[in-house]
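Exercise 7. Predict the joint structure of the components listed below.
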Amino acid sequence: MFLKLEESLGEQSGLSLLSNHVCNRIGSTDAKVADKTAQQLEERTPDWALQDGHFWLIQFGKKICTSRSPKCDRCPVSDICLWFVAQTK
Ligand code: SF4
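Solution:
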């Protein structure tokens, strides 16, 4: 699903960039480019989460884990976020 979205929207779309920074901060992917992030997500996401996962990831990137000023103080996944843990050491 993620790869299909990438193909239809273009690999450098806003959609891709949002997913890329969120996934790399949390630590669910470690790719440098958006298309590789999408590939890693596709490989690591269980089937049950594929259908709506990208939508929720985009919403999370727009409202909580924004690229310039992530709202870590009210983030529901800060306890598993590698970026947050590194910042608070
Ligand atoms: S803790 Fe901060 S950086 Fe980590 S996922 Fe949440 S908002 Fe993003």
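Discussion. The chain has one domain: 2-87.
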